[in-house]
Write a structure and sequence with these properties.
The complex is a heterodimer of chains A (236) and B (437). Chain A starts with 12 loop residues before the first strand and ends with a strand. Chain A is globular. By secondary structure, chain A is an alpha+beta fold. Chain A has six helices and ten strands; from the N terminus they run βααββββαββααβαββ. Chain A has one domain: 2-Layer Sandwich (Alpha-Beta Plaits), CATH 3.30.70. Helices cover 18% and strands 17% of the residues of chain A. Chain B is mostly helical. The longest helix of chain B has 34 residues. Classes of the chains: A alpha+beta (236), B mainly alpha (437). Chains A and B meet through strand 2, helix 3 and strand 6 of A and helix 6 of B.
Chain lengths: 236, 437
């Protein structure tokens, strides 16, 4: 509609990860699996590269043995503002919502997997088969998260269900949302408190503060993807 | 001036119609075998739909595998006909007359096969129609920013166009056939002839339509393979994101299409005993064209790799190294050998140039161009920007079965076509003869 002004979105979600704090313990990976009903893979399919981890911990080694330094970097969907995965989808199964999230519409996906090829972070995961859980694991599904069928793409949602619940709670209590109202599963479970989630529109939020830090970088930021995840590089 | 043009018309018609009658044991057996292999491919596809696309070997990060390689390969083969026959028609190259129909038929069938692969590779193929812009209750529209949508548009246009292009010069032939046929064949030919009576007005209309279609199909063919190239070049994946891809793909497509045509013509010549119609003169001309395309292909391949190597950008060099001296180097050097060295030696040296060597070189080029697409698609996906996500792809039996089956179905469709219609245009031979006299 011309002339009609879109109201400025209230929130702009982002994440900061302090790599100095990350111990590579993978608690975030486990938490994400439980929260988001990720299917489990057996050894064979994992070896084939079919394991699903919306967040993974990349390990990079520097130096020669025995003087080796390990760098851990949790990598999840960067919710890029200029997401390369979005324009290539022929059916609009992935698009940007007004709070900055790169959203995947499972029911719309036909499975061309073009988005997966065009993601420089390789954080998109395809359901090669209908998901299965060894009994009784199917009983512990999170009721707030839909199960994805075989043949569709999926990826980190920044725990959209938690964002929505926090919004509902704030509305019910008649108050504006405050920093810390939303915690994604990975952030909540990080024992080293290396990860912070919050609203980048709020200049006082912890994530905004960390994003402004001198150590803050964006992964492959040189591609112009404008990621919403900020990595605080390790101090030298 | 070739020997073929001096054959009397009655003889031409008899010779070209002879393969249409009856079916030899060898024909039936070959057709049955090809159909069996094609059926096996269909079963494999059914199994994949039933179990999930995971029965293929694709994985993260190599989300596209054999199916996309086959897709590009067959769309490339389809350029045999249209482009070659359209160029030769537009330039009034008289020697083209016995080869155009065979080429146009390759186009139509290769496109039908190539067009299947985007469906075969879909995760949820039963929803393929969501890629078409049709009015629907959800008020959803496909995303025309996606190169895959350009594909859908380009390929359906091309298929329509090339079917018309194949059909138009068939009309006078089927009209003649209808005069002599009986039973089912009579009905088929009569419907296809659309009441063709051979009046001057009809001939003029046909000629104009064919000239027009040749021009249109030329543009469409170039655009189709450019769009196929942009499926890759629009992505920011290292060594896909290249401005040279569209013309590079078009050249490669014509190259492989020519090779396919030479192989097909040789088989037609031998099995249908058309030695007098498809002469060394034709093969010599096609071989020269193939040599030209081989050199063009080499030029593009060189330009593409030189700029990457000189630019020395780490992510691109990862792929470059894997291709030229790493994991994928055997395929790479085989490709260079069969796409350049073999045609250059066999067809470049005049003494060696013959029907047999042209066919050998063409078979090599078909293998080489399949490998080229494999090397364009797989290595960049195997080596994504984040090294931790790298992964190796190897095809499963399902992908191999479906790939083999497409070659069989190409053969089967061609066999059936050559039983129903003269594979060498009869009336154009006639016209040719009149011109010469």
């Amino acid at each position: 509609m011309s002339g009609q002004q879109q109201p400025k979105p209230q929130h702009s979600w982002g994440m900061a990860i302090d790599l100095d704090r990350c111990t590579g313990c993978q608690a975030c990976v486990a938490a994400c699996h439980a929260e988001n009903n990720l299917s489990l893979s057996d050894a064979e399919s994992a070896a084939k590269g079919r394991a699903m981890h919306w967040i993974r911990v990349d390990r990079y080694y520097e130096g020669e043995f025995p003087d080796v330094r390990v760098k851990y970097r949790p990598v999840l969907c960067q919710q890029c503002d200029e997401a390369p995965c979005e324009p290539v989808c022929p059916v609009y199964a992935t698009y940007h919502n007004d709070e900055g999230l790169n959203v995947q519409v499972y029911n719309r996906c036909v499975g061309t997997r073009y988005c997966g090829n065009n993601c420089p972070y390789s954080v998109r995961f395809f359901n090669w088969f209908d998901p299965v859980w060894a009994a009784p694991l199917q009983l512990q599904h999170n009721p707030d998260v839909s199960i994805r069928e075989g043949g569709v793409m999926e990826k980190c949602t920044f725990c959209l269900q938690r964002i929505n619940r926090a919004k509902d709670d704030a509305r019910t209590e008649g108050r504006p949302m405050k920093d810390g109202d939303v915690q994604t599963a990975c952030v909540q479970s990080c024992p080293a408190e290396a990860m912070v989630f919050g609203d980048l529109n709020d200049p006082d939020s912890r994530v905004s503060q960390m994003a402004k830090s001198g150590r803050a970088t964006q992964l492959l930021g040189e591609l112009g993807t404008k990621p919403r995840v900020f990595y605080l590089e390790r101090a030298k | 001036m070739t020997a073929a043009t001096t054959i009397p018309y009655q003889q031409v018609r008899d010779d070209l119609w002879r393969p249409l009658a009856g079916a030899s044991k060898r024909y039936t057996l070959t057709l049955a075998l090809l159909c069996a292999v094609a059926l096996w491919g269909l079963i494999a596809w059914g199994y994949q739909i039933h179990k999930g696309i995971g029965v293929a070997g694709i994985r993260r990060p190599v989300f596209w595998g054999f199916y996309l390689v086959d897709f590009v390969f067959w769309i490339g083969i389809s350029h045999a006909g249209t482009l070659i026959s359209a160029i030769l028609r537009l330039t009034d190259a008289n020697w083209r007359k016995p080869v155009t129909r065979a080429a146009e038929a390759i186009t139509a069938f290769a496109l039908m096969i190539g067009g299947m692969f985007p469906l075969i590779h879909l995760g949820r193929v039963w929803l393929f129609y969501w890629l078409f812009p049709y009015p629907n209750s959800r008020l959803l529209w496909p995303n025309f920013r996606s190169p895959l949508m350009w594909d859908v548009t380009a390929i359906s246009t091309y298929l329509t166009g090339s079917l018309i292009f194949l059909y138009l010069p068939l009309i006078p032939d089927v009209a003649q056939l209808a005069e002599h046929a009986t039973g089912l064949r009579l009905r088929l030919y009569r419907v296809m002839a659309m009441g063709w009576s051979g009046s001057d007005r009809e001939w003029h209309a046909l000629e104009r339509a064919m000239k027009l279609m040749a021009g249109i199909i030329l543009a469409v063919a170039v655009s189709v393979h450019s769009v196929v190239a942009w499926d890759f070049a629009m992505a920011i994946t290292p060594m896909w994101h290249s401005t040279i891809f569209a013309p590079y793909f078009v050249v490669g497509a014509i190259f492989s299409g020519l090779a396919g045509l030479i192989v097909a013509l040789n088989i037609i010549r031998k099995t249908m005993h058309l030695e007098r119609y498809l002469t060394p003169h034709h093969f010599g001309n096609l071989a020269k064209l193939l040599l030209l395309m081989s050199l063009l292909w080499l030029y593009f391949t060189f330009a593409e790799h030189l700029t990457v190597w000189y630019g020395n950008e780490p992510k691109e060099m990862n792929v470059f190294n894997a291709r030229v001296r790493g994991h994928f180097s055997p395929e790479f050097w085989v490709m260079v050998f069969v796409n350049f060295v073999v045609p250059f030696v066999l067809l470049g040296i005049k003494r060696l140039r013959s029907i047999t060597t042209a066919t050998i070189a063409s078979i090599g080029v078909l293998i080489g161009m399949w490998l080229e697409r494999y090397l364009i698609i797989i290595p960049p996906l195997s080596l994504p920007r984040l090294a931790a996500a790298a992964g190796r792809y190897s095809p499963s039996w399902v992908e191999i079965s479906i790939t083999v089956a497409t070659f069989a179905s190409m053969g089967a469709m061609y066999l059936v076509f050559s039983k129903l219609f003269p594979i060498v245009s009869v009336w154009e031979f006639e016209a040719d003869e009149e011109e010469e006299e």
